[in-house]
C-alpha cells in the first residue's frame, strides 16, 4: 500500500485503510473501490491523505504508530477540552492523563516506532489534529531520550495542550489563507501566554506543563 494525497485520487483506486472522521464515525471502509462520489466525500471532509493498494496482490501492512481507537479518543478529548475552556475555563486533567497514558503505552510497545514517522495520523480537522500530532511526535522524542513515565506524562500533556490559548484568538486570523500583517501576527503571538494563564487557573495544574504551553514557540 502507499499513502497518497486526496488531490491526486482517481476513480477505481482501492482504499487500503478505513477512513474515520474526528468523532470516530466510519466514512469509507477499506477495500472499497473509489468512485467520484467517494472522492468528493473525502475532499468535503478535508481528508488530506489516504492509503490505497498500489498493487492489490501486495497488501503488506504499514505499522501503526497509535492504534485507531486511541487516536480517535485523544482527538475527541482535545476537542471537548477546548470547547470546555470556552465555556468555563476548565480542563479534566485526569481524563487527559488517561489518554496520554494509552498513547505512551502504544508508543513504548512499538519497537520500530522511530522508523514509522510517516504513519502518524490522517485527520480532517487541522487545529485538533495538529495538537495530537505534536503530542505524538513529542512523546516519540521523549522515549528516544529515555524519559521516565512521569516526564513523558508532563511532556505529553504540555504538547497536547500547547495551543489552547488560540481559543481567544479571532478565527479570522487563525483561518486567514494569506500572510498575516504585523498587527495580526502580534495578536496570534499572544496565544502562548494566554494558554499558560488559562492552564494555571485549573485544578491540578502543574507549573512544568504550563511552561511547555507558555514557551512552545
Overall description:
α2 packs across α4 and α5 (149-160) packs across α9 (207-215). A hairpin with a 5-residue loop joins β2 and β3. With 217 residues, this protein is mainly alpha-helical. It contains 9 helices and 4 strands, in the order βββαβαααααααα. It is globular. Residues 58-63 and 111-124 have low confidence and may be disordered. The protein starts with a strand and ends with a helix.
- What summary fits the major beta sheet? 2 strands, antiparallel
Average predicted local confidence, pLDDT: 78
Instruction: Write the element-wise H/E pattern from the N-terminal end onward.
Output: EEEHEHHHHHHHH
Provide the structure class: mainly alpha
Radius of gyration: 19 Å
Beta content comes to 5-15%
Q: What is the number of helical segments per DSSP (H or I, 4+ residues)?
A: 9
Q: Roughly how many Å apart are the termini?
A: 36 Å
Beta strands, count: 4
Shape: globular
Helix content: 40-55%
Unreliable stretches covering 5 or more consecutive residues: 58-63, 111-124
Strand order of the largest sheet: 1-4
Amino acid at each position: 500500500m502507499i499513502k497518497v494525497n486526496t488531490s491526486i485520487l482517481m476513480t477505481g483506486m482501492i482504499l487500503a485503510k478505513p477512513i474515520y472522521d474526528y468523532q470516530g464515525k466510519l466514512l469509507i471502509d477499506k477495500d472499497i473501490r473509489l468512485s467520484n462520489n467517494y472522492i468528493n466525500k473525502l475532499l468535503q471532509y478535508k481528508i488530506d491523505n489516504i492509503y490505497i493498494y498500489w498493487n492489490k496482490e501486495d497488501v503488506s501492512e504499514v505499522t501503526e504508530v497509535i492504534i485507531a481507537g486511541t487516536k480517535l479518543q485523544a482527538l475527541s478529548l482535545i476537542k471537548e477540552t477546548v470547547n470546555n475552556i470556552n465555556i468555563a475555563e476548565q480542563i479534566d486533567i485526569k481524563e487527559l492523563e488517561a489518554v496520554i497514558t494509552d498513547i505512551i503505552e502504544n508508543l513504548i510497545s512499538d519497537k520500530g516506532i522511530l522508523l514509522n514517522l510517516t504513519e502518524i495520523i490522517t485527520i480532517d480537522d487541522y487545529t485538533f489534529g495538529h495538537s495530537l500530532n505534536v503530542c505524538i511526535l513529542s512523546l516519540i522524542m521523549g522515549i528516544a531520550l529515555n524519559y521516565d513515565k512521569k516526564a513523558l506524562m508532563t511532556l505529553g500533556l504540555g504538547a497536547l495542550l500547547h495551543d489552547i490559548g488560540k481559543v481567544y484568538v479571532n478565527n479570522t486570523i487563525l483561518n486567514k489563507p494569506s500572510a498575516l500583517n504585523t498587527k495580526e501576527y502580534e495578536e496570534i503571538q499572544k496565544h502562548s501566554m494566554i494558554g499558560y494563564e488559562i492552564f494555571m487557573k485549573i485544578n491540578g495544574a502543574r507549573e512544568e506543563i504550563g511552561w511547555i504551553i507558555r514557551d512552545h514557540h
